[in-house]
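tl;dr need the bound structure. longer version: we got a ligand (flavin mononucleotide) that a collaborator sent over and nobodys looked at where it sits. i said id run it. heres the input, straight from their email, havent touched it
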Amino acid sequence: MKACILFAQPGEQSFHHEILHRVERALNQADISYTVRDLYKMNFQPVLSAADMKGVEQGRVSADIEEEQQLVTDADLLVMVYPVWWWSQPAVLKGWIDRVFTHGFAFRYEAHGPVGLLTEKRAIVFTTTHESEEEIRARGFDDLITKQIADGILSFVGCEDVVHRNFAAVSSASDQQRNQMLDEVETIVSRAVQPVTV
Ligand SMILES: Cc1cc2nc3c(=O)[nH]c(=O)nc-3n(C[C@H](O)[C@H](O)[C@H](O)COP(=O)(O)O)c2cc1C
């Protein structure tokens, strides 16, 4: 099994870096090889250009996207780690999705509708929000983050068993609460990669 981790948090030190560290620890413990795509560090170019669109129509992609698509193809598990910004991904990750999950690579349209092409892959998404679960619920946004990334994107492109875990109110969480969240990260990843026993 191989994993590809998409990490979208600027800077060097943050709670997201700790989440990433725990994801890596769980993968190391399970002896699973992985690649980290630290999109800010890579200075990933997230804007889907007219040239990109023309290329997709003609069945080709630029070299930077070819590299990302190869990593996705090789991965059995995709892991995303990002803060929720405007109830969505930071632009660098949203742009990675725009440019990498292209028509013909990640999905195609058939007579009965869209078909995901990234099958036999699992996905885990860890997000954080400033708002608490109660605040999110009061605004009627409870399912919004999950629907957008898990249903609207990852299941759409064919991923199976998509798990999304949002850690709410991280800004005001105590050290103890943050440690519990980090333990949960490790548990979720370890569970997802443990061999299926029959
Ligand atoms: C551009 C931007 C947009 C944001 N949008 C949201 C949002 O829609 N909902 C929310 O709960 N928090 C939002 N936040 C807060 C981040 O989710 C929060 O900073 C992140 O979860 C990490 O928390 P921390 O910075 O306190 O460690 C936003 C932050 C930024 C910078």
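gonna send this back to them w/ a short note. The mean pLDDT is 96.
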